[in-house]
Amino acid sequence: MMNNCANSQCAKPLHYLREGRVFVFDVQDPSIKTSGKPGHHLEHFWLCGACSQQFRVEYEPGRGILVVPRRQAQMSVKEAKQQASVTRALAS
């Protein structure tokens, strides 16, 4: 259950969902077993309006939930596109 902004430096209380942004992650949970496979569950995180302008929430297996600057997240996408174009060029 999310009660506050996921940014620990802010922690603004959640009153309404009309402001900010909700992030949902499908998280593997080895403590839950279904048909012999590890289970999973959904985790919800909210960033208030001010924080959602500057940050985003990411999930990394083994590290957990991270609040990262939006610019850094966008750079990752840009770098991934550049790497894909280099890979395509080498494959040709």
Written account of the structure:
- This protein has two helices and four strands, in the order E-E-H-E-E-H.
- Helices cover 30% and strands 40% of the residues.
- A hairpin with a 2-residue loop joins strand 1 (21-34) and strand 2.
- The mean pLDDT is 80.
- It has helices at residues 49-54, 70-91; strands at residues 21-34, 37-47, 55-60, 64-69.
- By secondary structure, the protein is α+β, with helices and mostly antiparallel strands.
- The N and C termini lie far apart (49 Å).
- It has one domain.
Keywords:
92 residues, alpha+beta, two-stranded antiparallel ribbon, 2 helices, flat
Q: What secondary-structure arrangement, pairings included, does this model have?
A:
Layout: E1 21-34, E2 37-47, H1 49-54, E3 55-60, E4 64-69, H2 70-91
Antiparallel strand pairs: 1-2, 3-4
